[in-house]
Amino acid sequence: MLALSVRGFIASHPLNRQTIRTMATARRQAFETIPSSPIRVMRTVDAVRRWRKPQYLDHRIVSLVPTMGALHQGHLSLIRSAARESHHVVVSIYVNPAQFGIKEDLASYPVTWESDCKILADLDRELADDGGNLGRISAIFAPTTPEMYPSGFPGQEVNSKGSFVVITPISEILEGGTRPTFFRGVATVCMKLFNIVQPEKVYFGQKDVQQTVLIQKMVKDFMLPTEVIIGPTIRESDGLALSSRNVYLGERRREVAPVLNRALKAAEAQYLNGALDRKQLMNAANAIILNDLNKQSALPPEKRVMFEVDYISLADPFSMEELTAIDPEKGGILSGAVKMLPVESPQPGEDLGHSGGPTVRLIDNIILKPSTDI
Ligand code: AMP
Questions:
Q1: Is residue 75 annotated as part of the catalytic site, yes or no?
Q2: Within 10 Å of residue 229's Cβ, how many Cβ atoms?
Q3: How far, in Å, from the CA of 206 to the mean position of ligand 1?
Q4: Which H helix or E strand runs over 176?
Q5: By the number of CB atoms within 10 A of the CB, which of 132, 177, 178, 335 ranks highest?
């Protein structure tokens, strides 16, 4: 009682009222935002937890869109879907070193913080103007590596020791066959992000189909209380799937890069015509690839683009294990990866792409729907 009346006396004094107002304003603004937007930038686990708790108590739906930045329309389509279905969208921007092999492109991976912030501020205004959305982009979570790995970063080597989430056998096949630490890194960072943000819904792109299968399995097997929503692959008009890594291509390789999508579409056409046998689908895909390789090989070095096929796969939609024939009631996943090699005989002034145009690994996929859904 005494404490209350003393507090009342202090608050009623005009000078103190001003101080209290100033302190309240300072408290309200004690967080970083993206310039010209109300989007918060949270850099620590603690900041996210403090922001998240009242949303939980208010029964607000919080969703998470994990990204590595270098944002493009593929990311934005996931954020748009999330805003339609949740009160608060959190976008994480974190280039997770654990999912890069020691010889991969971690050092040159495009970091475009300023333009990402502008893209998100513009998208947030678009979301605010569109009455069909439940929410908007409330926050970016952009942690540092020491924040994400509080016991110290365990390293990128295959035999690194540390706290990892490992989902097998899915992590060992296809993308995981060439990139042995990739899915360990992805599962580990996603488990951390899910635990930090505690989203009701998480959004992933179909473009990284093996990642979507892995995340769904992780959520199921570890009983994580989140719904996994998969958004469609967003493409350029010539079929090339958007990817942050496309900036490495440069003009010459960009022309040839849709070859993987064309090969997968040729195999899909076989399925849509009734073919179920692996050989028939693979022959159609391989014919496109061989034809393009022959065409390129016939060109002089200063004009040609050489590429290597890592794999073309026809796999089960749930396990991603290879199929010899498609069960039309289950459908399948056609996927592939090609390595676009650095161009030969670069010409003076030629646009070689980001970081001098290193080898670029492109992936893509097409879902073969069960015949009952076609
Ligand atoms: P990244 O920043 O490459 O880690 O991608 C973040 C999220 O965006 C992942 O769920 C990706 O699958 C998704 N994504 C990337 N490219 C595309 C695309 N072209 N279409 C749809 N989603 C995509």
A1: yes
A2: 17
A3: 8
A4: helix 175-178
A5: 335
Measured between alpha carbons, how far is 340 from 353 in angstroms, rounded to an integer? Answer: 12
Rg (CA), the chain: 24
CATH number, span 244-373: 3.30.1300.10
What are the C-alpha distances in Å from 281 to residues 101, 272, 313, 321? 32, 10, 10, 16
CA of 153 to the centre of ligand 1 (A): 24
Asked whether the whole model's pTM tops 0.90, one would answer yes
355 vs 357: CA distance, rounded Å:
6
Compute, in angstroms, the gap from residue 74 CA to the centroid of ligand 1.
6
What does the pLDDT look like over 127-151, one tens digit per residue? 999 999 999 999 999 999 999 999 9
Enter the tokens of residue 308: 């290597």
Domain range list for the chain: 37-231, 244-373
- Beta bridge mates, 240: none
Ligand 1 probe mutation, 68, 75, 109, most atoms within 8 A of CB: 75
Which are the contacts of 53, defined by CB distance < 8 A and separation ≥ 6? none
Q: Is 233 in the pocket of ligand 1 (CB under 6 A)?
A: yes
**Per-residue pLDDT reduced to its tens digit, 257-281:** 999 999 999 999 999 999 999 999 9
Report domain 37-231's class. alpha beta
8 A C-beta contact, residue 366 and residue 266: no
